[in-house]
Write a structure and sequence with these properties.
CATH superfamily of the largest domain: ANL, N-terminal domain
Oligomer: single chain
Shape: globular
CATH class of the largest domain: Alpha Beta
CATH architecture of the largest domain: 3-Layer(aba) Sandwich
Number of helices: 17
């Protein structure tokens, strides 16, 4: 399946609509424009297996470029629009990109990137950038028909760097793969999400992130119409669901939290009855949060566990989740194994590192050590994303936390996700991170850094209230010993928390803005 087919059967149907501006791109326009850009790629000397980079906010040109690269057999690197010039430089150079496409809104950073890099080509979208060739006018010189040597390309995405410098994930490209060949996500979506031409898919997150990009492109393959939010806002999200009669969407738990913290009368004022499928991932969802979302929207909320690396996936639908609360599902891609530090499988119910077998292991670009560390020491055909969890007697997986975030206090392993899941449900907490900080006696002590809700002042009294709240739900050893307050935690626009940046403040690696 591919948008080129929908361009023939439903040429005037919207492929996507930019929610804020209302700009609409039909399947015919998407097909023709991506063909023109594919010709421009070939004219620039790009051949199958080469790499381009895209540095832009959510833009109507985004998918035209991605589909052009996909049908040209190229790797396309989608770069966070929040990065600085040196960070963009690292990614374009590490990925081996020969072309950078940047949006006018990122002109300040893009201009600096051109000064410190030596790529073959620099193109702009949405307006002029000094030293960049405007793509919209350039592509008009090329045909709207397909290039002669079409083959399937793919994304090459970089980790968000929450635990270190980002690494590119570069899957193998099979030569001469047809552009309309199904992939694993398309097959899973057809089987479990029921996506099709009659659906309206709302994407509330930045397109440079793996999940929004891949889910959007998957639903475009299936012929659905996408509604692209330029930026997530909880009430605006509900407004778009009602306005466009949205049927499908992909979210992260922090979006659920923000929706639930809207006043009840606001939440009830919007009609969300059109929704028939909601998928979420990115982090474990606090049980009370998901319970409230299912009560509000019904048993239409599915959850999966996977990574950009594509080495495995679990999935759970609402009915199974309600009978196995906290699970992220059973495997739908790959075999699931829970192992100890020696690489041996552990008994049912025992925590250990999560591995997937029967799938291709991650391929981190220019990172042989990371590739090796992802493999099980005794079963090198099993690979891991570094997460810790357990499996119950019914085969359902439960995530504990990232292994890298584990706190060792007095020889006891503590996973901060448990305390975070409790504290985020407190009505005075907007966001929270739990970390380990240096402690002379125990090695590490458990610390919570809390972002209060608007209008709530940080105080010793609030800290004590939150500590007591946590202790009422968890054993004392799992709870923070102390709480600091921060006006805004460093969270990625996709919902992922930059916990490393918070932790570094306490380990002497960066300045602090704790108040």
């Amino acid at each position: 399946m591919h948008p080129c087919h929908h361009a023939k059967t439903s040429p005037d149907k919207p492929a996507y609509i930019m929610a804020g501006s209302g700009e609409t791109v039909t399947f015919r326009q998407l097909d023709e424009r991506s063909n023109q850009i594919a010709h421009a790629f070939r004219n620039a000397g790009l051949k199958p297996g080469d790499t381009i980079a895209l540095f832009a906010e959510n833009s109507p040109r985004y998918f035209e470029i991605c589909w052009a690269a996909q049908r040209s057999g190229l790797y396309f690197v989608c770069i966070s629009s929040r990065l600085t010039a040196p960070e963009v430089q690292y990614i374009v150079e590490d990925s081996g990109s020969s072309l950078l496409i940047a949006s006018k809104s990122k002109a300040d950073v893009a201009t600096k990137v051109k000064e410190i890099t030596q790529l073959h080509h620099y193109w702009s979208i949405g307006g002029d950038i000094p030293g960049y060739q405007p793509l919209e006018s350039h592509q008009q010189t090329f045909p709207v028909t397909p290039i002669a040597d079409e083959m399937s390309g793919t994304d090459m995405l970089y980790s968000s760097g929450t635990t270190g410098r980002p690494k590119g994930i570069r899957p193998a490209l099979e030569p001469n793969t047809p552009i309309d060949a199904d992939n694993v996500l398309v097959q899973i979506t057809k089987a479990l999400a029921g996506g099709g031409p009659g659906d309206i898919y709302l994407s509330p997150a930045p397109l440079y992130h793996a999940a929004p990009l891949r889910w959007c492109m998957t639903f475009t393959r299936l012929g659905a119409t996408l509604i692209i939010m330029e930026k997530f806002d909880p009430e605006t999200f509900l407004e778009y669901v009602q306005k466009y009669k949205v049927t499908h969407t992909q979210m992260v738990p922090t979006m659920f939290v923000k929706l639930l913290k809207l006043p009840e009368d606001v939440r009830k004022s919007y009609d969300v009855s059109s929704l028939k499928f909601v998928i979420h991932a990115a982090a474990p969802c606090p049980i009370p949060v998901k319970e409230q979302m299912i009560e509000w929207w019904g048993p239409i909320i599915d959850e999966y566990y996977a990574g950009s690396e594509g080495n495995g996936m679990t999935w759970v639908k609402s009915p199974d989740w309600l009978s196995h609360k906290g699970t992220v599902g059973r495997p739908v891609h790959g075999e699931l194994h829970i192992c100890d530090e020696s690489g041996d499988e552990v008994p049912v119910g025992t925590e250990g590192q999560i591995y997937f077998g029967g799938t291709a292991p991650p391929n981190y670009h220019n990172a042989p050590d990371k590739n090796a560390s992802a493999l099980n020491p005794k079963h090198p055909d099993w690979s891991s994303l570094g997460d810790v969890g357990r499996v119950d007697e019914d085969g359902f997986l439960y995530l504990t936390d990232r292994k890298a975030f584990m706190i060792i206090s007095g020889g006891v392993n503590i996973y901060p996700q448990e305390a975070e899941n409790v504290l985020i449900t407190h009505p005075k907490v907007a966001d929270v991170a739990v970390i380990g900080i240096p402690d002379d006696e125990f090695g590490e002590a458990v610390k919570a850094v809390v972002q209060p809700m608007p209008g709530i002042a940080a105080s010793d009294e609030l800290a004590e209230e939150l500590l007591e709240f946590c202790r009422s739900e968890l054993s004392k050893i799992k709870c923070p010993k102390s709480i600091d307050f921060d006006p805004e935690l460093p969270r990625h626009a996709t919902g992922k928390l930059y916990k490393r940046l918070i932790r570094d403040r306490y380990w002497g690696k960066s300045g602090s803005r704790i108040v």
